[in-house]
Amino acid sequence: MNIAIVKDEIFLKHNPGEYHPERPERLAKIYERLSQPDVAEYVKVLRPREATFEELCWNHTPEYIKTIQQTAGQNHIQLDPDTATSPESYEAAIKAVGAQFVGLEAIFKGEVQDVFALVRPPGHHAERDRAMGFCLFNNVALAAHYALNRLGAQRVLIVDWDLHHGNGTQWSFYNRKDVLYFSTHQFPYYPGTGRAEEVGEGEGLGYTVNVPLPAGCGDLEYATVFKKVLLPVARAYKPDVILVSAGFDIYFGDPLGGMQVTPVGVAYLARLVKKLARECCHGRLLLTLEGGYSLQGLCDCVAAVVLELAGRSIIPSDKLEEFEETARPLEILNKIRMLHEKFWPEVSS
Ligand SMILES: [Zn+2]
Predict the structure, then answer these.
(1) What pLDDT, on the 0 to 100 scale, is given for residue 22?
(2) Spacing, Cα 93 to ligand 1 middle (Å)
(3) Is 164 a catalytic residue?
(4) If pLDDT is split at 50, 70 and 90, which confidence band does 349 have?
(5) Which residue from 28, 76, 89, 259 puts its CA 20 to 30 A from 120's CA?
(6) Of residues 14, 60, 124, 125, which has the active-site annotation?
(7) What distance in Å separates the CA atoms of residue 304 and residue 48, rounded to the nearest whole number?
(8) Which DSSP state fits 261?
(9) How many angstroms does the Cα of residue 291 sit away from the middle of ligand 1?
């Protein structure tokens, strides 16, 4: 088997409160869906470990880590207007980070090619010293640090297709070139960052690529942006591993999002990043669950991604042809070209 998921019951125990959209049922439904035989037969299951204090310090301040540590065993603690903990949130959070490390180890040892870390709480809004937007520790940022610090990677590509901009991830690497952050996101929208003009600074100039999109974009718009921007930039960058902040709040039925992406469209995005990983980095690909608040959308989209990676694509052949041949004339593409052609002349072609 070439694909593994990282799962654990602890991820169902983080509970930010009744009526919170980022609820345990999200992941319970995904686990249930993936245990069905049409998917389960292709998937190996890995268990997470706990990330250590020292590892968390790669991306967070010691003071902030201690603040989260102190929530352990406590009833509801409100960290920001959207983000709260329950007694087992800390354990879930350090294992959500450790899930990344276990996944990367398996990938770099060649035991599997693709790993999908199916974890809660999510991570991409978490800042260095602040919980935010349902996120405690920045799972994907810490995965990038692990690849660089422990596995000898020189260049890490992060693809963030969550509906929201991953502010925490962007700021973690804003002045570095060893991590390239690419994000598509609804804009203007929460958290407010992610303008196309945010392109990195210092050594990191050109290594942040933001593609803000208006509400209403669907499969073809996302496919167009991935083909016209992500593929040429990533091919020029030549990453040693690809990490995906996989949020499914881009699903057409998501209660928090305004996008129109279908599970078939999501499968096509997975197909493109897989293709990139094969071309650039021996297929090394780690996906991590971020947002997604429709239970149906989560089940259908995660299953679509796993089946795509397992070589059992759900994309009908006429749709595939349409994705391959159609490019939507998006206004934002000209702006991206203008802003990035000095860094990535490939985007002009
Ligand atoms: Zn999101």
Answers:
(1) 98
(2) 17
(3) no
(4) low
(5) 259
(6) 125
(7) 23
(8) B
(9) 4
Other CB atoms within 10 A of residue 16 CB: 24
Q: Which of 116, 142, 164, 153 is nearest to 273 (CA)?
A: 116
Q: What does the pLDDT look like over 128-155, one tens digit per residue?
A: 999 999 999 999 999 999 999 999 999 9
Could you report the per-residue pLDDT of 247-271, keeping only the tens digit for each? 999 999 999 999 999 999 999 999 9
Our CA dihedral for 85, 87, 91, 96, rounded to 10 degrees, sits at -40
Mean of per-residue pLDDT scores for the chain: 97
Q: How far apart are CA 146 and CA 55, in angstroms?
A: 8
167 — pLDDT class (breaks 50, 70, 90): very high
- H or E segment at 243? strand 241-246
The pLDDT tens digits of the residues spanning 38-62 come to 999 999 999 999 999 999 999 999 9
Angle subtended at Cα 328 by Cα 327 and Cα 329, rounded to the nearest 5 degrees: 115
276 sits in the region (left: phi over 0; alpha: psi -120 to 50; else beta) called alpha
pTM score, whole prediction: 0.98
Fill in the DSSP letter of residue 82.
Answer: T
CA of 134 to the centre of ligand 1 (A): 9
Q: What is the mean pLDDT of residues 21-42?
A: 97
Residue 114 and residue 278: Cα distance in Å, rounded?
11
Compute the distance from residue 162 Cα to the ligand 1 centre, in Å. 5
Paired tokens of 330: 């998006």
Q: Where are the domains of the chain?
A: 3-348
Residue 332: CB atoms within 10 A of its CB come to 20
Q: How far apart are the CA of 108 and the centre of ligand 1, in A? A: 28
CA of 82 to the centre of ligand 1 (A): 12
Look up residue 117 and give its two tokens: 């870390």
Dist. CA 43 → ligand 1 center (Å) = 25
Distance 230 CA to ligand 1 centre (A): 19
Question: Thinking of the domain 3-348, which architecture would CATH place it in?
Answer: 3-Layer(aba) Sandwich (3.40)
What pLDDT does residue 285 have? 98
Strands 114-117 and 208-213: unpaired
